Amino acid sequence: MHDPKNDEPGATSGRRARGELESGVLAALYGADGPQTARQVKDRLPGDLAYTTVLTILSRLYDKGMLVRHRAGRGYAYAPARDEATHTAERMRSLLEHGSDREAVLARFVSELSEQDEQLLQRLLSGPDDPQHTGRADEGP
Predict the structure, then answer these.
(1) Residue 75 β-bridge partners
(2) How many alpha carbons fall within 13 Å on the CB side of residue 63?
(3) Summary mean pLDDT of the chain
(4) Per-residue burial over 99-132, b = 16 or more CB atoms within 10 Å of its CB, e = otherwise
(5) pLDDT in tens, 41-65
(6) Does the pLDDT value for residue 116 go beyond 50?
(7) Which of 28, 37, 128, 138 is 20 to 30 Å from 45 by CA-CA measure?
(8) Residues 6+ apart with CB under 8 A from 57
(9) Where are the alpha helices (DSSP H) in the chain?
């Protein structure tokens, strides 16, 4: 039955936001040492999710090409199809492409970077021929 109280801004219905479960499952798989079964993923997630819910999310992510799987007993073990950095970069690029004002979005993004992240971005944009470029994106200044 519909509860009008949940129509108010800030009201919670106890349901997760769209994509939140998928993000949680992906985070659990990125944090794992190798492919994980649905039970192992469930154990890595907060809260009390049903096994079938986790299995459904894994199947959806597999169908979207975001996971690979191989037989593990009677079921499957899942792993991300791409590393976390590639996945995040693809999401960032997709968000940028769907915005109506790329310049405004990029300007806002850069203006909100920490000084350390701004320096890192400047090094990455300068390329490997620049004397300030250190070679690896994860190295400090």
Answers:
(1) 72
(2) 7
(3) 84
(4) eeeeeeeeeeeeeeeeeeeeebeebeeeeeeeee
(5) 999 999 889 999 999 999 999 999 9
(6) yes
(7) 138
(8) 21, 22, 25
(9) 20-30, 38-44, 51-63, 84-98, 102-111, 115-126
pLDDT of residue 137: 47
Q: What share of the chain is helix, strand, coil (3-state, %, to 5)?
A: 50, 10, 40
Percentage of the chain modeled with pLDDT above 70: 78
Residue in 17, 35, 33, 23 with CA at minimum distance from that of residue 87: 23
The two structure tokens encoding residue 1: 């039955």
DSSP state of 133: -
pLDDT at 58: 97
- Between 91 and 41, the more confident residue is 41
Tokens of 68: 């690979």
Q: Tokens 């509860």 sit at which residue?
A: 3
